[in-house]
């Protein structure tokens, strides 16, 4: 019984620390979201250009575009991580709210990578690239989950609206009439639901750490 009480106290203390950190300190990581939003929206627009015939290429070219975008984004993330470690703001980065933010988005990133790899294998096994048509819906739904966790842990209500927008966009992707329209909508969603909120966090970060 005493162990359960101690565990409950630890949980309460952890949640209180998250709330306090989120209210008094900036959330670090907006630059990574800007990177993801911009890089993957550009990749999506390249795929759109291929879909309407502006760029000639096969399905494997589309796959190459996404792999290249992932490699570029991973390079940017490694640079950002090195910069954060050298910034001298280790206490802010190590705060409970920031740990929750990193866990949520790290889990989101790994989930997207696993789904992407699984989709490639499925397409190769079945020789049917239609499996990628649901990819934008899955990504936006994962974004919504990460934003919802970030909102609850950092006490920033505006993040809840971004989460709701991500879930709505995920459903809306299934209603689009064709692949070209889906590419354009997905590019816009990445800018509005990743890059733009990430830029807001970057501004908060500069103001909070100044």
Q: How are the elements arranged and paired?
A:
Blueprint: H1 2-24, H2 30-51, H3 59-86, H4 90-93, H5 96-126, H6 135-154, H7 157-173, H8 179-209
Helix pairs in contact: 1-5, 2-3, 2-8, 5-6, 6-7, 7-8
Describe the structure using short key phrases.
single chain; mainly alpha; globular
Provide structural commentary:
The protein has 210 residues and is mainly α. The protein is built from eight helices and no strands. It has one domain. The protein has helices spanning 2-24, 30-51, 59-86, 90-93, 96-126, 135-154, 157-173, 179-209. The longest helix is centred in the middle third of the chain and has 31 residues, at 96-126. 32% of the residues are buried. The mean pLDDT is 84.
Shape: globular
Number of helical elements? 8
Radius of gyration: 19 Å
The count of strands amounts to 0
Structural class: mainly alpha
Poorly predicted tracts of residues: none
SSE arrangement, N to C: HHHHHHHH
Portion of residues within helices: over 70%
* Domain module tally: 1
Calculate the terminal CA-CA distance, rounded to whole Å: 47 Å
Biggest beta sheet attributes: none
Fraction in beta strands: under 5%
Mean pLDDT score, rounded? Answer: 84
């Amino acid at each position: 019984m005493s162990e359960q009480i101690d565990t409950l106290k630890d949980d309460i203390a952890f949640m209180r620390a998250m709330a306090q950190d989120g209210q008094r300190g900036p959330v670090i990581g907006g630059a990574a979201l800007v990177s993801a939003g911009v890089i993957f929206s550009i990749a999506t627009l390249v795929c759109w250009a291929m879909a309407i015939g502006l760029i000639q290429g096969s399905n494997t070219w589309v796959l190459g575009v996404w792999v290249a975008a992932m490699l570029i984004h991973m390079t940017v993330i490694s640079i950002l991580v090195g910069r954060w470690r050298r910034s001298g703001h280790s206490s802010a980065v190590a705060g409970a709210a920031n740990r929750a933010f990193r866990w949520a988005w790290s889990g989101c990133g790994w989930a997207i990578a696993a789904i992407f790899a699984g989709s490639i294998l499925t397409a190769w096994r079945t020789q049917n690239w239609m499996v990628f048509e649901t990819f934008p819906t899955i990504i936006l739904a994962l974004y919504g989950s990460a934003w919802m966790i970030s909102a609850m842990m950092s006490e920033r209500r505006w993040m809840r609206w971004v989460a709701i927008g991500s879930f709505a966009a995920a459903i809306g992707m299934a209603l689009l009439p064709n692949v070209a329209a889906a590419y354009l909508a997905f590019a816009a969603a990445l800018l509005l639901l990743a890059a733009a909120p990430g830029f807001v966090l970057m501004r908060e970060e500069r103001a909070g750490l100044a």
